[in-house]
Amino acid sequence: MFQNWGFLLAEIWLLIGLAALLGLFVGWMIWSRGSAPRATVNDASQLRADLERCRAMHSDKDDRIRALEAEISSLRLVAAKTIPPRPMETAEPDRSRKEESVKPATLGAARGGMPDDLKRIKGIGGKLEELCFELGFYHFDQIASWTSEEVAWVDENLEGYKGRVTRDDWVSQAKLLAEGKETEFSQRVDQGDVY
């Protein structure tokens, strides 16, 4: 019975040795794949040369960008000196002006069912014409008869267009149009050059 034990022990040691060799081989394979290749001096010099070539190719673009940024800065300075700052509209209406304002006479509908083409007045587009109709202003003669107090009221109540009546001088344009005369702007509208 004990005579075969020597053979079994030899086989066990042989298998343990083979397993150790196989483990070393697998470990060496895994270790060699995971290690990064080392850069050589030639690789580093090649990368430096590529970097310098890229910088040389794009230096003119960098110079142009710097020149444009300087030009923009100088134009901003010139604009700041020549264009006065616009006053911001305040959320709170000017009470003194509101006290002076008077609502102009309005109509419930256009006379004869046909309103005038208010877009022939410079400063009135499609949306503003609709707003004028909603407020009861349909005709040139209505606008032409506004007093300064009435102009102040309309300027305050044109939501989104405050101050437009005064800025574009609607009253003088409406006077000409109510008399059957033309303005330069109304002629352009009639020719189809505006809308």
Structural class assignment: mainly alpha
First-to-last CA distance: 116 Å
**What is the arithmetic mean of pLDDT?**
81
Sheet bearing the most strands, described?
Answer: none
Strand proportion, as a percent range, falls in under 5%
Give helix and strand order, one letter per element, not per position: HHHHHHHHH
Assembly of the depicted chains: single chain
Q: Flag low-confidence runs.
A: none
Question: How many runs of DSSP E, i.e. beta strands?
Answer: 0
Radius of gyration: 44 Å
Number of helices: 9
Helix content: 55-70%
**Which descriptor suits the 3D outline?**
elongated
Overall description:
The chain is an all-alpha fold and 195 residues long. It has nine helices and no strands. 11% of the residues are buried. The mean pLDDT is 81.
Question: Can you describe this structure in just a few lines?
Answer:
This protein is mostly helical and 195 residues long.
SSE blueprint:
Layout: H1 5-34, H2 41-82, H3 95-100, H4 126-135, H5 140-144, H6 148-157, H7 164-168, H8 170-178, H9 184-190
